[in-house]
Model the fold of this input.
Amino acid sequence: MSYESSRRYLIVSPCRNEEKFMRRTLDSVIAQSVRPALWVIVDDGSTDATPQILAEYAAKHDFIRVVPRKDRGTRSVGPGVIEAFYTGYETVDPSRYDFVCKLDLDLDLPVRYFELLMKMMEDQPRLGNISGKAYYIAGDGQRVRESISDEVSVGASKFYRMACFQQVGGFVRQVMWDGIDCHRCRMKGWLVGSFDDAEIQFLHLRPMGTSQHGIWTGRIRHGFGQYFMGSSIWYMTASAVYRVFQRPFVIGGIAVWWGYVKSMLTGVKRYDDLEFRRFLREFQWLCLTKGKRRAAALTDQRQAALWNPPGVKR
Done:
């Protein structure tokens, strides 16, 4: 079987007040060995120099298109980010592109990043949603890999085969959108993952989960997201214990667990898809009993028969 590709890819970048980091992202995309056919950058009501910087780059590069939104008054992680993403995505005709990437403007990408992701997908038709691994520079100057499991892609750089993105229904407009989409891909028989090959490792200039209000707030938000997604209390407790021994030590695991339990006690509404939640808990049980790598392999093998996207030659 084969998947025909013209290597036309679309990037959509929601951003708000990114003047500190965005030039590094802009320059690293411009320097790509294979540039995007179109890069739609949605300015989500920035109040700093972001609009001026975007105008400067758009004037120099015709593949960059800026879409402004009104200032909502604050950064909104989760629903706000995805609303901004769709503000940009809905300005294009998806049928013109083979791939789509949701890309944050606080990253520094290696020069062959997108070329190699497309090559991986061309070599393996079932790959539908992938990324490289994200690293950040710690306070002591060390280069540290973010805690992202191999069986999911990194939310800051979601590279999709367009057929996969459309088949799974895109992103949910809530916190944990970047976990729900990976599980929905796997449900449909697609392969999902993040890969630590040296040529596709990238720098996250604002470390994942730190939040604009600090690490404690960011980790609590993650716990809420896990509850919304449908994770079980047993899985979250095991996950929180594991996180105690990762940076930021102790506090990270406690905050995640409290975010989950607080959401449970206050009756927060959950993702309204019972089939998805059953699939998720079966997968998480396998993770607890077999390990994540083995759980992903077993699930991918089981779901292979359901993989039936358009555009595939068998």
